[in-house]
């Protein structure tokens, strides 16, 4: 994976791809815990979005014993223009997966775990039952671990969201990914308004649940469009916003239109905070699960200071 990340960092020669600025640097670590985490995932036959999506923070996070596990296989039924995960016909759902995931959480001694998945439009419930079983098994194996789920949109899957929320994760995350105008090009299998409705319904079903969403920037969006997404998310009572710089995984993926500066990310943070998000994480290398455990502690502390929310 280190070699893969270095290849990605060297892709600035791609035609139409602006040079990567000095503030975008992949962080590598020689910490032995990186390979130990990788070995554990292979032994338990688990996939991680860290690897499949070629996350630039993999080395740093794995050195801290934090990995985002991707359930329901490694093949997605959709083909988003930004995503490095393989598209095709997924394998059958592995019934052992929830138990294997719980073992990994216990062995790593995780304080906080993030569970995500590929889109499984082929399944009647979109994979919601596997999310619920995973939460249940983790609660049994590591009762002190807090659980965050990063789910697909469960489009055309009646009651799927209800199944996940009923399993009582501590954080429900569903990413909007980009602004509405760019959906047809960047996220063609999804619908912006449906994704907003998913977040709003999760909060309606369980008001005490922390909700979270994120977008990428650098895909051609305007600043006013980013502000519009913030306003929509606050209308849906989303608690936590993440904003990060899009990085092109391969030649076949959507181009980077621009690199937002650190100063712009600071402005985005300020604008989001003014709108009432409990926590905002907006930096060039922010990803949905980056520092998720630390940020969950920030969420709880922020809510404690705002009991009326």
Task: Quote the CATH topology.
Answer: TIM Barrel
Ranges where pLDDT stays below 50 over 5 or more residues in a row are 1-15
Termini separation: 42 Å
Biggest β-sheet description: 8 strands, mixed
Determine the CATH superfamily: Aldolase class I
Query: Topology as H/E string?
Result: HHEHHEEEHEHEHEHHEHEHEH
Shape: globular
Structure described in brief:
The protein has 309 residues and is α/β, with parallel strands linked by helices. Helix content is 39%, strand content 14%.
Structural overview:
With 309 residues, the chain is of the alpha/beta class. It has a single domain, classed as Aldolase class I (TIM Barrel). It has helices at residues 2-9, 32-43, 49-52, 58-63, 97-108, 128-141, 160-166, 183-186, 192-205, 223-235, 262-274, 292-304; strands spanning 47-48, 68-71, 75-76, 86-87, 112-117, 146-150, 171-173, 210-217, 240-245, 279-282. It has an 8-stranded mixed sheet with strand order 1-2-5-6-7-8-9-10, sandwiched between helices. A two-stranded parallel sheet has the order 3-4. Helix 11 links the parallel strand 9 and strand 10 (279-282). Helix 5 (97-108) runs parallel beside helix 6 (128-141), helix 6 packs parallel to helix 7 and helix 7 (160-166) runs parallel beside helix 9 (192-205). It is globular. Residues 1-15 have low confidence and may be disordered.
């Amino acid at each position: 994976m280190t070699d893969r990340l270095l290849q990605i960092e060297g892709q600035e020669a791609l035609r139409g791809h602006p040079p990567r600025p000095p503030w975008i640097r992949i962080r590598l670590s020689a910490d032995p815990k990186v390979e130990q985490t990788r070995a554990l995932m292979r032994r338990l036959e688990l996939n991680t979005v860290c690897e499949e999506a070629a996350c630039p923070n993999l080395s740093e996070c794995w050195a801290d014993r934090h990995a985002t596990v991707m359930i329901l296989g490694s093949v997605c039924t959709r083909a988003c223009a930004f995503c490095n995960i393989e598209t095709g016909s997924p394998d059958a759902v592995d019934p052992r997966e929830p138990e294997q995931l719980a073992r990994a959480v216990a062995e790593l001694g995780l304080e906080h775990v993030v569970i995500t998945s590929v889109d499984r439009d082929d399944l009647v419930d979109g994979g919601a039952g596997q999310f619920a079983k995973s939460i249940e098994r983790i609660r049994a194996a590591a009762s002190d671990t807090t659980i965050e789920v990063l789910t697909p949109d469960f489009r055309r899957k009646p009651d799927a969201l209800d199944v996940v929320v009923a399993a009582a994760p501590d954080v429900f995350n569903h990413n909007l990914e980009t602004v509405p105008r760019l959906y047809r090009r960047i996220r063609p299998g999804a619908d912006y308004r449906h994704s907003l409705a998913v977040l709003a319904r999760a909060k309606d079903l369980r008001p005490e649940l922390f909700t979270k969403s994120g977008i990428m920037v650098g895909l051609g969006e305007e600043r006013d469009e980013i502000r519009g997404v913030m306003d929509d998310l606050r209308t849906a009572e989303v608690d936590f916003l993440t904003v990060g710089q899009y990085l092109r995984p391969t030649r076949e993926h959507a181009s980077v239109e621009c690199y937002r500066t650190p100063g712009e990310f600071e402005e985005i943070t300020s604008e989001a905070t003014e709108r009432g998000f409990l926590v905002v994480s907006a930096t060039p290398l922010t990803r949905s699960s980056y520092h998720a455990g630390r940020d969950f502690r920030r969420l709880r502390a922020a809510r404690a200071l705002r009991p009326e929310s």
